[in-house]
Design brief:
alpha+beta; six-stranded antiparallel β-sheet; 26% strand; elongated
Length: 219
């Protein structure tokens, strides 16, 4: 009877240790189990370096090249003539053809209110002094160039404001008139671009905090 009792104790001890081992192994398996369903994992792909970087445009659109297109042509700008020449030098060699073009839609009109230059410099100085005597301080006597002797009384984008300024001068018996100034703007046309990403990289270097117009055109 004693032997049976000892055998039962031994069997219970074995069962106790076996149960602990099974429970510990299960906890470790649960701890290291993945927290997702492997079949539902999305495969991530590295973005190709061919994707052009973002370039801010005036209409907040990014012009991207279609990889299936055989040719890509862009028109960039508008710029003043000197700026267009400078930008075109940065972009030279990145397309088969680069053109600086004029566009009637890119003409900018300003309205310059002046008191015309007198026949001599001394009389122009006297005219400027007369205008100052009327309490008009926002004026400037042009000292040289083709407009030497002209008294500038204001440059306006709005024609009505320019007319109002002229009327104010005439009411002070100041000889005044309006000259319409047309500034021609230029755009840069790139035809058959070799690598679009190079274009955008260069533009990002030139126009760090500026907004520019970029539009895709027919080649």
């Amino acid at each position: 009877m004693r032997q049976v009792f000892l055998l039962l104790i031994f069997a219970n001890t074995l069962l106790y240790f076996w149960a602990n081992m099974v429970r510990t192994g299960g906890e470790e398996s649960a701890f290291y189990a993945p927290l997702y369903e492997p079949v539902s994992i999305e495969i991530l792909h590295i973005v190709s370096d061919d994707t052009p970087p973002f370039v801010t445009t005036k209409n907040k659109a990014t012009v991207l090249a279609n990889k299936n297109e055989q040719k890509l042509c862009l028109e960039i700008g508008s710029f003043e003539r000197e700026k267009a020449i400078s930008v075109s030098q940065w972009l030279s060699g990145l397309s088969q053809h680069l053109l600086i073009v004029s566009n009637d839609q890119l003409l900018v009109k300003n309205y310059w209110v002046i008191s015309p230059a007198a026949k001599t410099w001394q009389k122009s100085i006297a005219n400027a002094d007369y205008i100052k005597s009327k309490g008009i301080s926002d004026m400037w006597l042009v000292p040289n160039g083709s407009d030497r002797g002209t008294v500038s009384l204001g440059l306006f984008v709005d024609k009505d404001k320019a007319a109002q300024r002229m009327e104010e001068m005439l009411s002070e018996t100041v000889n005044a008139e309006i000259i319409e100034i047309i500034k021609e703007r230029k755009s840069i046309r790139l035809e058959n671009i070799l690598n679009p990403s190079d274009i955008f990289k260069q533009l990002n270097k030139i126009f760090i905090d500026e907004e520019i117009n970029i539009q895709k055109i027919n080649c």
